[in-house]
Amino acid sequence: MVSRAILASMLLGLVVAQAHAQSPGLISGDRNIKEFLGRRNCLCSCNAMKDKQFYITMRDPADWYTAVSYCTSIGMEIAEVCSTSELRALQQTMQEEENSGEGLYYWIGANDLGKNGTYRWALTGRPVEEEVQQWAEGEPNNAQPNSDREETEHCVGVEVSSQKWNDFLCSEEKKFVCQRYPDN
């Protein structure tokens, strides 16, 4: 029997591959992947599994789309937090990696690309539960920092020292956290 984690990883890989086939510029963050992630309805469950492991890659910072793609390319997924215990594990992983992380953010899989203000996980498409949301004061604000561009903030980063969430332009480059489930 195929595990849920493997099935979810395969499904995300298919989404990325299909979107990339439609538009070779996908990984640079063009509109096609936004539309794909926004309308995708995934059959994968988002159950807290005590054996989930979070990893911070040694790769250079990347935009959110590249982070999603990179995690998939190494057999993992961009991090999702489905319970308070997973939230604590993610926080611990980031704090162990960065001793002085003030102002340093890591991408996770939360985004509102499908519907502004409705945050979902990239892997499963499920809503981000309120109990795990750790928004900084005044966030999410969907700001448009560059008035020359139409892009607004849709992708979530977690600040290392405060562990607070913020929405950012998906095209910004940040470190990121991947996750995996150990083989049974």
UniProtKB/TrEMBL annotation:
Query: What start and end residues bound the annotated signal peptide?
Result: 1-21
One Pfam family in the UniProt entry: Lectin_C
Q: Membrane spanning segments where?
A: none
Q: Which GO terms describe its molecular function?
A: carbohydrate binding
**InterPro entries in the cross-refs:** C-type_lectin-like (IPR001304), C-type_lectin-like/link_sf (IPR016186), C-type_lectin/snaclec_domain (IPR050111), CTDL_fold (IPR016187)
Q: Which UniProt keywords apply?
A: Lectin, Signal
Q: Which residues form the C-type lectin domain?
A: 50-179
Q: Does the keyword Signal apply?
A: yes
State the protein's name: C-type lectin, mannose-binding protein
Q: Which organism is it from?
A: Anopheles darlingi (Mosquito)
